[in-house]
Amino acid sequence: MGEGVGALSIDTAAGDGAGGARRPRKVVLLGNPNVGKSALFNALTGLRATVSNYPGTTVEVCRGRLSGSDTEVVDSPGLNSLLPLSEDEQVTWDLVRSMRGERDAVVVQVADAKNLRRALLLTLQLGQLEVPTVLVLNMHDEAEARGIRVDLPGLEAAVGVPVRTTVATRGLGIEGVTAALAAARAPHDHLPLPEDAAPALDLLTGRADLSASPPACLARYHESLLSHADRIARRHATEGGSGSAHLSRRLGRLAIHPVWGWPILAAVLWALYELVGVFGAGALVDLMEKRLFREYLDPWAVALFSHLPWAIARDLFVGEYGLITMGLSYGLAIVLPIVLTFFTAFAVLEDSGYLPRLAVMSDRVFRLMGLNGKAVLPMVLGLGCDTMATLTTRILPTRKERLLATLLLALGVPCSAQLGVILAMLAVVPLAAAAVWLAAVAGVMVAVGWLAARLLPGERGDFVIELPPMRLPVLQNVLSKTAARVEWYLKEALPLFLVGTLVLFALQRLRLLDKVIRLGEPIVKGVLGLPAEASAAFLIGFLRRDFAATRLFDMSRGGGLDVVQLVVAMVTITLFIPCIANVFMIAKERGFKSAAAMSAFIFPLAFATGGLVRLFMHAVGFRGAP
Amino acid sequence: MTTASLASATDAVTCSLCGFEYVPGGDACRERGCPVALGGCATRHCPRCGHTVPDEERSAAARLVRRLFRPRPPRSGETLAELGSGSRGVVERILGDPGLRARLTAQGLAPGVAVHVLQTTPACVIEVGETTIALERRVAEAVKLRRDQAGGVESPAAGREPTT
Predict the structure, then answer these.
(1) B102 touches chain A (CB under 8 A)
(2) For chain B, is the Cβ count within 10 Å smaller at the N or the C terminus?
(3) What CA–CA distance (Å, rounded) separates A154 from A134?
(4) Is A302 helix (H, G, I), strand (E, B) or coil?
(5) Nearest Cα residue in chain A from B129
(6) pLDDT-derived band of residue A616, with 50, 70 and 90 as boundaries?
(7) How much of chain A, in percent, has pLDDT values that exceed 90?
(8) What angle, rounded to 10 degrees, do the helices at A336-352 and A261-272 form?
(9) Contact in structure between A45 and A64 (CB atoms under 8 Å)
(10) Is B116 helix (H, G, I), strand (E, B) or coil?
(11) What is the pTM of this model?
């Protein structure tokens, strides 16, 4: 490989945008996980980002424009090597490779200033790909606090690219990065690679394809890059103290402690319940539904539409199955507060660095189901939105695990809207009845996971997860993340709520509702022991199960269901597929066949489990009104 | 309590109230005619101020509590899975499938690198430079360590003898 590729640039590397600085047209942010890429992205673009799928894939990429210019900024998933070992990394690899020919595209490599060695591994690979780069040492304050000193000019000369320092979360050093863009150049490619590692270069540059099983040369290749990186880091940065007395470090250790980890986990769950269950599903829903909708919006809408001369139009908007009185009020009053509080809590957990630690604590449980601890991330996210979580299953290393996690999400993880209804239900039935619901759903999940893990071909992936330091989440980042997720959720859920209402309205108008109810009677009344009217709710359950749960809960509030019926209904509807959007997502991610097979498996299982729960509860002697 | 005073009187303890250093038990108790001195006395009685404390060494409950807080003495071994919490080692090579090796090396876990084991359950957690990585036992078993154990002495509790 050409020793001279980057040699020309040493003398000018340190200069800020020499002369008539030409801004690049495209900037790609790239770096190891948890180095603050998103924070730098927000700082560079001023938060005007759009989340979009990377062309040809479903991996999401944030795009925005550089503040005060039309330069496009693209965020990318975090990665440890540019060799595409997983689906996420493949995207970044494509992105970087497509830039090789482009004159005006620049990579901004974001690095953790404390962990120069690992960052330089990527920088060296960018050099091999000959991509113009600016190296940004982020979290500079943390590094300084640890006593790490970086010799910037020396590092610039050694690597051959402009190096800047930032504290992205506080917006420090951002102008320096913008100014350095014009001075970006390809890092030195100083590698005479050892012979047994050389074939990896063809994979990196795309001259050879990565076949199904990665060859042994990849590890050798990383090793030789690492030792180069190590040499550079040692020469140009001092080693820092370990900072062992640091509170965040102690907390990070305690969160995975074999003894103290459990009380911490319990405390986190309790806080989550208080915020989402008590505050969101309780206080906020009350405020929205009883005050805002029942007292103001509904009467106001009824008054407004009473001027319409056609009864059918009045009923369409404000009738029993009205778009406003039912669709909007279910969607906004019941779903929005829960989704909002859940995603806020989730963003806090995500930014604090607790989730990978949760993965460590729950590894054993997931191993039972043929998964490993990493699966806890999509599972917890699934408590917010199962469709979103189905996308996240991509972080799991093997196809088998992705399939298993997708199935379990669709089967038993209630999304936040449904969780809210369930929490409301738990408040009115005896504790023992609520425990039956929990045991039935958890039991079915573990049993199905255990069985499927044995029946599906393939291996469980190895559990290796990096634990980022625990950090205090930054309010701005938490809010923007929450806003983006709530927007996604509403865009997806609200139209379906309206469609569901329309279907019910149309069925009722066409006098088909009675037919549906009679059609569903053998199952709904015979197997589940519910009033035949519940058929309509289950029908809507095919669109969104939380909508159906809300409907059932409404029925029970009118005194229509006793304790056994309520629990049976909730178990059945929890085990339904979350929503039609989820089915589409499964089809998109895992193929049409998988989606069809899962649906064919889940619906009968849900009814069968409901029937069994009914028999069990009668046998044990539950009875009476809630 | 310094190491010197420990060496001169092996069983000496310091009274937590008056600071007097004394050897509990022995003839002093019997001479005073203490009725429990003949049997298994589980207290320490300061001869100067009379302050009496339970002997924690004799209490099963106290020993249990101490064990909860005491870090396991570091063990040395041939693979990462055999190391106890608090011990250090240097990676010699990583076995197992090439994909896993490629991923581990990309995370900075490579031959010649020093690792520090933070804990072993519920998963093995190691520090490699500034990176903390959790790995399951199966993966830890694939990481072979150097036998000469150059790094083993750096551990804070390395003075203790390895127990098996």
Answers:
(1) yes
(2) C
(3) 15
(4) helix
(5) A115
(6) very high
(7) 20
(8) 150
(9) yes
(10) strand
(11) 0.78
Number of C-beta neighbours around residue A140 at 10 A:
21
What's the rounded Cα separation, in Å, for the pair A36 and A353? 12
DSSP A333: I
pLDDT digits (tens, 9 = 90+) for A169-209: 888 899 999 899 888 888 988 667 887 887 788 888 777 77
Domain ranges within chain B, ordered by starting residue: 3-69, 80-154
Task: Find, among A522, A534, A519, A523, the residue nearest to A606 by Cα.
Answer: A523
Both structure tokens of A528 = 């589940």
A23 CB contacts (<8 Å, ≥6 apart)? A66, A69, A71, A181, A182
Nearest C-alpha in A relative to B120 = A258
Which residue ranges form the domains of chain A, and what is each CATH number?
A: 7-236 (3.40.50.300), 261-463+478-620 (no CATH)
Among candidates B98, B138, B139 on the partner chain, residue whose Cβ is nearest the Cβ of A219: B98
Contacting residues of B for A115, CB less than 8 Å apart: 129-131
Q: Pseudo-torsion of CA A300, A304, A309, A310, nearest 10°?
A: -60
Please list every residue in chain B whose beta carbon sits closer than 8 Å to the beta carbon of residue A81: 102, 106
Q: How far apart are CA B87 and CA B80, in angstroms?
A: 10
Per-residue pLDDT band for A266 (boundaries 50, 70, 90) equals: very high
What does the alpha-carbon distance between residue A380 and residue B65 come to, in Å, rounded to a whole number?
34
**Helical packing angle, A513-521 and A475-509, nearest 10°:** 100
What is the residue whose two structure tokens read 């909708």?
A293
Please state which CATH number belongs to domain B80-154: 2.30.30.90
The phi-psi region of residue A171 (left if phi > 0; otherwise alpha if psi is between -120 and 50; otherwise beta) is left
> B51: which residues sit within 8 A by CB, 6+ positions away?
B15, B16, B17, B18, B45
In the structure encoding, which two tokens stand for residue A347, read together? 């963003």
| A contacts of B134 (beta carbons < 8 Å) | 256, 356, 359-360, 373, 463-467
In sequence order, what DSSP letters do the residues of A534-597 get, joined into one string? HHHHHHHHTTBHHHHHHHHHHHHHTT---HHHHHHHHHHHHTS-SBHHHHHHHHHHH-HHHHHH
The rounded mean pLDDT for chain A is 83
Nearest alpha carbon to residue A583 among A598, A572, A573, A571: A598
